[in-house]
Amino acid sequence: MDEVKDLAAQPLKKRIFSGIQPSGIITLGNYIGAIKNWVELQRDYECLYCVVDLHAITVRQEPAELRRRTFEAIALYVACGIDPEKSTIFVQSHVPAHAELAWVLGCYTGFGELSRMTQFKDKSQKHSDNINSGLFTYPVLMASDILLYQANLVPVGIDQKQHIELTRDVALRFNSVYGDVFTIPEPYIKETGMKINSLTDPTKKMSKSDPNPSSYIAVIENRDDTIRKIKRAVTDSDSVIKHAPGKDGINNLMSIYSCFTGKSFEEIEKEFAGKGYGDFKAAVGETCADGLENVRSEYARLIKDKAYIESIMKSGAEKAFYMSRKTLSKVYKKVGFYHV
Ligand code: AQP
Has this prediction a pTM greater than 0.90? Predict the structure, then answer.
């Protein structure tokens, strides 16, 4: 009887939503800033992890490559430790409610609000030949991804913080008109690793769509490439291993080392006191390659099992479909759409 009472007293698990675009090979930045945290959060939260292919087409994609990368991303999620028995893993375009809710929320989002988004400004500079309206309304689609599942928490890198703030504003605005329709989400951003920078230009974020493969570590690339890229990473002319303003290259490598070893910057400084960049880079490269070893071997096994990966996509889409329909029906009713 006591056991029954205890179970009833337990609060329902809070919910998490997050996703990655299949717009390139998933990088160490995506791994440290997002996936590594997703794995830890599975223990205490009900999690939905999505491959956000609708977002990816805001930049021109080669169709066969997009299809392949979507499949690979699902395999990589599982290889990294996302458990399909615990978490819902799915592809965004398999659940139509994302696009449907985005239309509705777009009618509650200001042109001025979207114009202030720094990602839109950055990406329209990078892709000046294709500044499409999808690139502009990207944050509205992201808001519907999160709000559809009534997510409490959204684990992301720092680059996505502004989009989560917009999601909150839109949800609060909608709720103020129609009552408590949406849960107001919070961003979950870890201080260390919230922005892993490019290895060739450490003032810039590491990005999977960077045309220079030396700028990023792909999670699934071979060990020697990882070690070699870190060895060649751009650092300043000084040779002291110290986390300090202006030492972007060393700060970046220290963050990577810290994320894999759990050591603080102070501990790392002590460990490498009196040693040069060569020793430090070799240690970061080895540690990073070791930390990704299991992911790489799991991935190599999973990627050959098409039936298994597709079964994960299908059952994830079914669960997500059911949950998303509940929110979408409520929204349609609130705004006054006729139902028969
Ligand atoms: N360099 C990074 N450091 C920390 N976190 C990062 N994230 C991305 N890059 C870093 C986090 O990864 C998640 C998925 O990102 P995304 O696929 O939605 O797109 P993005 O942020 O635009 O990532 P990329 O790699 O730079 O993609 P492209 O090159 O296609 O634009 C997010 O939580 C993001 O914060």
Answer: yes
